[in-house]
Amino acid sequence: MAEAGTPSGPAPGAAVRAAEPATPDRPSYDVKLRADADGSHWAGRQTVSFRNASSRPLREVYIRLWGNGEDGCGTSGRPSPVRVSHVRGGTPGRPGVKCTALRIALPRPLARGERTAVSFDVALTVPARNNRFGREGAFRFLGNALPVLAVHDARGWHLDPYVSYGESFYTLASDFRVRLDHPSALKVPATGSTWTRPGGTGRTVTHSVAKRVRDFAWAAGPFRTATQTSPDGVRVKSYWSPNTPAAGVRLNRKDGVAAIDRFGREFGRYPYGEIDLVMTPGFAGGMEYPGLVILGTEEEGGATVHEIAHQWWYGVVGNDEYNSPWLDESFAQYANARYYRWDGFECSPDDSWPSATAALTNSMAYWSTHRGEYFQVVYGIGPCVLADLEHVLGAGTMARLIKKYAHDHWYGVSTTAGFKKAAQSMTHRDLGPFWRKHRIR
C-alpha cells in the first residue's frame, strides 16, 4: 500500500513516452474567501475545473498546499496554516509530503479531452513570520497560500518537497476568478485585473480576474497606494506600508515602470495589463507572483527589476522550479544585470565553481544539501553563463534567441533541453563544448 501522498504515476526516470503532455491542463479556479478583522484568517470555498490532456485516463489529481511548507502537518493545538475540507467531485486521501499534497481520487477515470471539477472548503491562517506566506506588522502576505493543482507529465506526478530559501513550484497556466471579502480598512493588492465593490457594513469585496497565470497571490493591510501607467500602457499599482522609506518607494516605482516596458520589448509584451508592487521595509529580498511582487524596500529601493523579470521567466515562460531553478532565477538575474548594464555585477573568467559537484542545472534536491553554493551558482554564475553565450552568438543573435524562445514557450514550460536546442538552432557552431564547460547538463 502506497504511503499517503505517494504518487501513483511512474517514478521520475521511468520508461515513459517523452511526448506525454503535462496534465491536468487548462485549469480554471473559482474562489470566494472572507477575511477576519485584520486579514489573518481567510475562509471560503474553492472550485477548480480541469481537462485531461494525457492519452491515458486520469484517475486522480493532487492539490498542492504549499502554505503548509514551513509548518507541515501542525499539531492538535496548532493546525496547519492551510486546511481543506468537505471535498466534492472526488475522494480525498490523507495529506502527504508533510501536508503539502492532498490526493483526490476521481469518481471515474477521466478520458483524454474530458473535463471535470473538484471543490472544497479552504481555511487559511497567515503564519506569524515575515515570509511570502506570513506577516509584517499590520500587513499580511498570502503568497503560495491558495491550493493549486499538481502537474503530471512524462516523469509522473510532481510532488516535490517544499524548500524555504528557493522555490519548489511547478504549475500550468491557469485562469482564476477570485472574490475576497475583507474589512474596508484593508487594501488588498492581488494577481490579475482587480476592482472593488461595497460589501456588508464596513466591508469591501475585491474582485480579481486573471487569465493564463501560474498562481494567485494577494496581500492585505492598511497600505498607502499610488497608480501610474507605463508609456507602453501597463498599469503599475504600488502599495506600501507607512514606515517604508519614501526614497525607496519612489525608486521602486520608477524601476517598475521602466522594467515592465523594457522587458516587454525584449521578451514580448507583458500580457496581464497591470502589476502590483507591494513594499515593506522588513520583507527579506523579494518574491515574485504573476502580476504581483513583494519587495523588501530600503532607501536604495529593492529587487524590483529582478522580480519584474520573473513575470516572463517563471510567469509567462514557466518551468519546473524545483528540478530546474536556473531556468527562472538565472534568466531573471541575467535580465536584471543587462538592465543595469552589469553595473556592480562581475563575472569570473572561469566561472569559479564552488565544488566539483556544483552544476548550473542541479535541482533543489542538490541545493538543499549544498545551500552555501546555491546563490553563488544560480544567481551569480548563471547570468554570467548567459552573458558568455551572448558573446559566443553575438548580441543581436542572443536577443533574437531570447525573444523567440519566450514566444515559442509563451504560457508553456521551458526545459534545459529545449533551451539548448533553441540556442543551437541559432548557430552553425557546435555548442556541445560550451554546455560542458558551463556544466549545463
Automatic annotation (TrEMBL):
<feature type="region of interest" description="Disordered">
    <location>
        <begin position="1"/>
        <end position="29"/>
    </location>
</feature>
<dbReference type="InterPro" id="IPR014782">
    <property type="entry name" value="Peptidase_M1_dom"/>
</dbReference>
<protein>
    <submittedName>
        <fullName>Aminopeptidase N</fullName>
        <ecNumber>3.4.11.2</ecNumber>
    </submittedName>
</protein>
<keyword id="KW-0378">Hydrolase</keyword>
<dbReference type="GO" id="GO:0016285">
    <property type="term" value="F:alanyl aminopeptidase activity"/>
</dbReference>
<keyword id="KW-0645">Protease</keyword>
<keyword id="KW-0031">Aminopeptidase</keyword>
<feature type="domain" description="Peptidase M1 membrane alanine aminopeptidase">
    <location>
        <begin position="269"/>
        <end position="436"/>
    </location>
</feature>
<dbReference type="InterPro" id="IPR034015">
    <property type="entry name" value="M1_LTA4H"/>
</dbReference>
<feature type="region of interest" description="Disordered">
    <location>
        <begin position="74"/>
        <end position="93"/>
    </location>
</feature>
<dbReference type="Pfam" id="PF01433">
    <property type="entry name" value="Peptidase_M1"/>
</dbReference>
<dbReference type="InterPro" id="IPR027268">
    <property type="entry name" value="Peptidase_M4/M1_CTD_sf"/>
</dbReference>
<feature type="compositionally biased region" description="Low complexity">
    <location>
        <begin position="1"/>
        <end position="22"/>
    </location>
</feature>
